[in-house]
Amino acid sequence: MNSDKDIEKLLSEMPIPEVVEGEHKAWLRAQLLAKPKQGINDIFAAHKRLVLAASLLLGIVLTAIYAYTASAPKAFAETLKALQNVTSMKCSVSFELPGEKPRNDTMYWVAPDKLRMDFGSEEYPIHETKWFEGNTLTVVDYKKRSAVVMVQAIADTACAQEGVSNFATPGAFAEIIRQMSGVMSEKEQDGHRVITYQAPDGSSMESTLDRETHLPLMITIRRATGKPATMIQRMEWNVSVASELMTPLIPDDIKVTTLDYTENGYPFDVRPGDGVGPVRFGMTREEVIQALGEPDAEPFENMGLLAYYRHGIEVSIDKKKKDVFWISMVVHEALDLPYKTFTGKTAEGIGIGSTEAEIVDAFGETEREVSEHDVVTLRYPERDISFTLQSGLVKKWGKEARVTAIVMTKPR
Amino acid sequence: MKNILRVRQAHRIPSPETCPTETQGEADLVERAKKDPAAFGALFELYYGPIISYAFRRTLDMHVAEDVTANTFLKALKGIGRYRHKAPFRAWLFKIATNELRMHWRYARRHSRQREGQNWRTYVGNSVSIVPKVIDQQEIAEAMERFERLRNALLELPEPYQSALVLRYFEKFTYEEVSVVLGKRCGTVKSLISRGIRRLQERLA
């Protein structure tokens, strides 16, 4: 390529792919033009499918608590009663995410708040295990040979809707129950009761209940197309679950990082165009590691992203130039990953938790972008920094939108 | 989903440039759609193809393209009451799609998801419609591979450059329309495109 003209010609004349309209269009058209809808899959975002599965399962268990206050569907009345006496449960969960192979996981629950999730099963080797107990979450990644123990990472208990463990919560289940107050049907199948809840958007949830115990044996969530999205199978109640199974077991050769969320991260200063604390733009990977220590994880393999959960910082290394070109700082609740809240501030006093007015006072008026769920981004390209503000994400902040992430890029 | 791919040579086949920007008829349609969701169907018919193709060109992943397209139209339907004709409807719609793509990449990066772009071969294999007809299966695959190489080079540029170049050259948007989609001034867009070309040249050198 010799000149800009050559590139322009290449871009202009390059044969480009075009998608021919197919079944997806017909399906989407039907969705758009149907009456206003709200379905099971709307309860949680797509990436929370596992969360949904877990919520559904443990939620049913937790119905015992809610049975007295929530308006639970009559069809589940006996089940709700039976669930008051359950003490443990084991099941397998298979679910499908767009673009991924179907997965099959195993879950164990022991009253009151112990939960184990094995990602993988007999068919697929277990590659990750999560244990929840009280306020602590332990995650072992067998592939990456790393483990994170998050102490006091969860408000209230492991089943509370806060931070990294926003599933299996009474709140989430209350929402499901509310959704299920719609159209129900019941049939007999292989000696079991099968109750189907049909959501207005065409998705459905089918629960197979044992005639004698009234407890669920299988739950299937289907997309509007009829294809199963999540299947909870082989549900066994009041089974004996070995206590060692519910106790985190980290193999000796696995690197363990312990994060205590009662302690704050170090309040590094934020210097737009220069860096954060001891990290500066232009540093090599080795220099970053020398400054901040070994990263807690490198979540995007081969992409040069160093994750420092303990500081609430992500550092990206340019693949070609091999130096730091991007740094982000986050609040604990912002991601599924176990970051602590970044506690540093700019010289103007702006940091995680600052308000839009405070940013505008400090940095001036600028371009304001509003995206899904009213997430606001304020960009200051001349200072190579941007702020993401969200409301409702961090309970203690109330409804006011505050900074949940700060991103800085290397000056051009 | 049995979506079918076809490869079109931009200089021979009518491109999205021929889509109306905002004619009076379209403006009326938008106004009707604000009051009657059924009228939204006509807008959907007009723009489904351009939006899903745009999403696919940027990701080379049919699953992601379908998700992005679905979210784009769902949000457009929800937000059409706020559309004020300050910019062409097409640019407004592409702005939503571009934001959806950004959110997808952000999510993918956060969740260590495999980089997309691996599944186009599945679709090219069995169900390819060819325009113009002289191109055979092999040529389509080669054209797709050339496109993928270019797209991978584009991916190495910062996101605003990628969006500006794709919208200008693949989607055939005017500078003004690109400025609407990206929420930047026209001069900034021209500068982004000019610098983007230079950066792309360095990568392809």
Question: Which features characterize this protein?
Answer:
heterodimer; A: 412 residues; alpha+beta; outer membrane lipoprotein receptor (LolB), chain A; protein yfey like fold; 2 domains; twelve-stranded mixed beta sheet; B: 205 residues; mainly alpha; Rna Polymerase Sigma Factor, Chain: A; globular
Describe the structure.
The complex is a heterodimer of chains A (412) and B (205). Chain A is α+β, with helices and mostly antiparallel strands and 412 residues long. Chain A folds into two domains: 40-243, Lipoprotein localisation LolA/LolB/LppX (outer membrane lipoprotein receptor (LolB), chain A, Clam); 264-409, protein yfey like fold (Sandwich), CATH 2.60.460. Chain A is 18% helix and 33% strand. Chain A has a twelve-stranded mixed sheet with strand order 8-9-10-11-12-2-3-4-5-6-7-13, with helices on one face. In chain A, a hairpin with a 2-residue loop joins strand 8 and strand 9. The longest helix of chain A has 18 residues, at 49-66. Chain A is globular and about 70 Å long. Chain B is mainly alpha-helical and 205 residues long. Chain B has a domain at 16-155: Orthogonal Bundle (Rna Polymerase Sigma Factor, Chain: A), CATH 1.10.1740. Chain B has nine helices and one strand, in the order βααααααααα. The model of chain B is unreliable at 1-20 and 125-134 (pLDDT under 50). Chain B has helices spanning 24-35, 40-59, 62-79, 89-110, 120-126, 137-155, 159-170, 175-182, 186-204, and one strand at 4-8. Chains A and B meet through helix 1, strand 1, helix 2 and strand 21 of A and strand 1, helix 2, helix 3, helix 4 and helix 6 of B.
